[in-house]
Design brief:
The protein has 216 residues and is mainly α. It folds into two domains: 34 residues, no CATH class; 144 residues, no CATH class. Helices cover 39% and strands 0% of the residues. It is built from ten helices and no strands. α4 packs across α5. It is globular, with a radius of gyration of 21 Å. The two termini are 40 Å apart. The structure holds heme C (5 copies). One heme C (HEC) binds next to α2 and α4.
Length: 216
Amino acid sequence: MLVFPKWTNGIRVVIAIVGATAPLYVVLLVAFGASPSATDVGYQPVQPVAYSHELHVGELGLDCRYCHTTVETGAHATIPPTKICMNCHARIFGQSDRLSLVRQSYAGGMPIEWVRVHDLPDYAYFDHSAHVRRGVGCVSCHGRVDKMDESGVYQAEPLSMGWCLDCHRQPAPHLRPLDAVTAMDWAPSEDPLAIGPRREAAGAVSPPDDCAACHR
Ligand code: HEC
Ligand code: HEC
Ligand code: HEC
Ligand code: HEC
Ligand code: HEC
């Protein structure tokens, strides 16, 4: 008699889940597949103000957390309110045309309508703090933001499910010391997988690959 070994129970669970989600998959493809441009690598919408990360981060050396204040503590990174810009721009280039919308926004109390670049579908759950506090750097997911100029931020990575899972299954090469999470040009001094402490760090983090972790 053919007896299936115990581990095949896992396969049956997977088949059951795939079976149960296949109709959902079709619905989702129909609903979202028609507008793929918003999730493509290279997507770079025109922004209302020609703000340059290259200038403010690359040249002036501002840390990401000066503006994206909740990135270590919350699910969302937040786009800075105009008040943060005015910390400097109340004085610097007070008359510049390129800052007129910033001044109007501040005077009128209306937020600047920045166009969203990265946007996961609502059915996928993502939390910044869970990543940043475990030593995954911004650059792993957003690319060299410090080289993105006044044409705006663009999407550097696919943000697809396969992309999330590639890292979740082998996080070690993507981990770095916590004090380097916002550093854009940090690089391990050796082959990341060859370094003992980093292997240990990799063992201490176990990113989930079960469906319910990301689809709640
Ligand atoms: C002086 C403030 C400031 C600093 C410092 C700053 N940013 Fe930004 N960031 C902004 C503003 C304003 C926007 C919205 C405009 C845009 O998307 O270009 C933005 C947008 C972004 C976006 C796109 C958000 C979206 O809509 O998906 C990413 C990603 C980002 N920043 C990452 C970073 C990283 C990484 C750093 C540090 C290396 C950083 N930022 C430093 C102000 C800042
Ligand atoms: C820590 C100070 C500081 C903060 C905060 C800051 N900026 Fe700036 N910004 C500067 C400096 C300094 C320059 C000029 C750099 C140069 O040309 O040498 C500048 C230049 C600019 C320019 C180009 C102005 C021109 O006429 O060329 C724009 C647009 C701009 N900033 C937008 C913003 C926005 C939007 C924010 C908020 C999200 C912001 N800045 C926050 C310091 C700051
Ligand atoms: C593991 C990947 C990953 C890392 C690391 C990461 N981000 Fe993100 N970021 C994303 C994803 C995915 C989104 C889209 C989130 C959504 O649509 O809900 C996003 C969105 C953003 C946004 C838009 C606002 C928001 O929260 O949706 C900003 C700003 C941002 N990230 C900045 C940063 C900064 C700054 C860092 C480093 C301190 C960072 N991110 C690290 C994946 C990452
Ligand atoms: C570059 C590597 C990397 C990428 C890309 C990445 N993750 Fe993660 N993820 C991690 C690490 C590391 C952890 C922390 C695991 C731990 O704490 O043990 C984690 C943890 C998580 C968790 C569990 C923590 C929580 O908030 O419940 C979720 C959910 C998650 N990631 C979702 C996503 C999604 C969705 C994407 C794609 C949009 C993504 N991740 C992309 C590395 C990554
Ligand atoms: C690490 C996070 C993560 C895990 C684990 C995960 N997903 Fe996803 N999933 C995502 C993200 C992010 C998207 C959105 C992709 C996009 O916008 O292109 C997605 C999209 C989907 C879609 C929509 C269609 C598609 O392919 O884009 C289905 C269906 C789906 N996931 C099912 C599953 C099932 C079933 C599992 C378990 C076997 C699972 N997911 C595990 C992050 C995850």
